[in-house]
Design a protein that fits this description.
131 residues; mainly beta; 2 domains; 3-stranded antiparallel sheet; binds zinc ion
Length: 131
């Protein structure tokens, strides 16, 4: 995750700080190594959003095109299912950035969960098909 709550305020990960996951309220640790993007990880192995994937630079760059308060917005269904939208606009449109392929049924469940949503897909990774 790009954001966690530190003393109740959304913050990006910086070395040596701890926070709280805005999705599930669990403790998080700032991970600020050299290889991966700076991010927050749950202290325990608990996964609060099974749709969450390790963020790539492609993914983070797209998210960064939007205001920070639109990024990583917690969304709860009537049934209590929790997911964190990559971007949610003030008018309620969810934008999900997808770098790698996902199975059709998972795609369908995301579309059903977020009523109003669009996908931004990295099409440069698809093989070129010549008819
Ligand atoms: Zn969490």
């Amino acid at each position: 995750m790009k954001f966690a709550l530190v003393d109740g305020i959304r913050q990006e990960a910086t070395t040596g700080i701890r926070g709280t996951c805005s999705g599930c309220g669990s403790p998080t640790l700032a991970k600020c190594g050299l290889k991966r993007l700076h991010h927050w990880a749950h202290v325990s192995t608990a996964v609060c959003d099974r749709w969450w994937e390790t963020e790539t630079e492609w993914h983070r760059a797209w998210k960064n095109l939007f205001p920070t308060e639109w990024q990583e917005v917690r969304h709860v269904s009537i049934e209590g299912e929790v997911h964190i939208a990559d971007v949610k606009t003030p008018s309620g449109t969810v934008i999900e950035f997808q770098y790698s392929a996902i199975p059709p049924q998972e795609r369908g469940s995301r579309e059903a969960f977020y009523d109003l949503m669009v996908w931004i897909v990295d099409g440069t990774r698809l093989p070129v098909v010549v008819p």
